[in-house]
Amino acid sequence: MDYPKSIPSAGLVDGKFVDEDPVMGTPGSLIPASWGNGITQELLSVIQAAGITPAEGLHNQLLAALRGSGLFVTAPQFDNDNSVATTAFVNRSGLQFSGFASYADSAVLTVSNIGGVSSFSSNTPITATLPATAGIAHASTMNVVNAGSGALTVSAAPGSDTVKASNGVVGSIVLGVGETAEFLKLENQWRLVGGTVSLKYASLFSGMTGNPGYQKYSSGNIDQWGYGTTDANGEVFITFPISFPTAFVSVVATHVGGDGAMVIMLAGTATKQSCRLKVRDMGGSVRAGWGVTYFAKGY
Question: Are 73 and 81 in contact (CB under 8 A)?
């Protein structure tokens, strides 16, 4: 469809219609019947293709056709041409990443990795450097997988960018064997928002390594452990690394020494924050300086 340029009597100016100008004495353009019919038929063809019967008194039929379900054709599954995707096509295709890239060594990722999966496979520790956030659309995502047996450290690009865990900790993220990470682009920041490695930073799974230490579980159960030394009465006052939110349940303790000894928890001393242990040797004697390790459970 085009302007009626082939009809001289239409009176187009620069290829377009103009109004009559009585002051200048110039006539206005004429609309040839063929052009008016052609324009009308163009619109009617769209309306009819959508399964709608044209009605002279209605003025929203073209909009209804464009918004309806009968006009557009759903392409075959996984079709990747430039045709418009219907909602049926999108729903049938399911969620798809933009691509999959595999690396055997340290690599600096680029904008081509945005929206896709970057898989690293190495037997030694390597590093994945995320692309600089400048110029990348807000809330873009990246997925990183450690498919190797060596640790994978994910870091920000040199400059002002940072990597931030979901609990607010800033710094590189280390992925162990088989771990995954999903990052969300924010202002000068890649935020860890998903993947198995994010569980380390969630309150349900938080913990502290070392001695003393603790580990939380999604069920609400908490394990805590540590070390203490007896006083002159053979007693050890244990303060747990963190307070049990609801209740202390039990404690198992072991004497550290060269001979047998019995370790008990003194009745009435257990709280959500602490307990008191007592150690006696095989002869029933007590002594200062005996080491005791403990393992406590609660929720």
Answer: no
Amino acid at position 189, single letter = Q
Task: Write the pLDDT tens digit of every residue in 83-112.
Answer: 888 888 877 777 789 899 999 999 999 999
For residue 17, what are its two tokens? 């219609």
Q: Which CATH number fits domain 207-298: 2.10.110.10, 3.40.50.1000, 3.30.70.60, 2.60.40.3940?
A: 2.60.40.3940
Task: Copy the structure tokens of residue 36.
Answer: 């008016």
Residue with token string 């995320």: 130
Tell me how far apart the alpha carbons of residues 279 and 266 are, in angstroms, rounded to a whole number: 10
Q: Among 2.60.120, 2.40.128, 1.25.40, 1.10.3470, name the CATH number for the domain at 100-201.
A: 2.60.120
- Whether the Cβ atoms of residue 115 and residue 141 lie closer than 8 Å to each other: yes
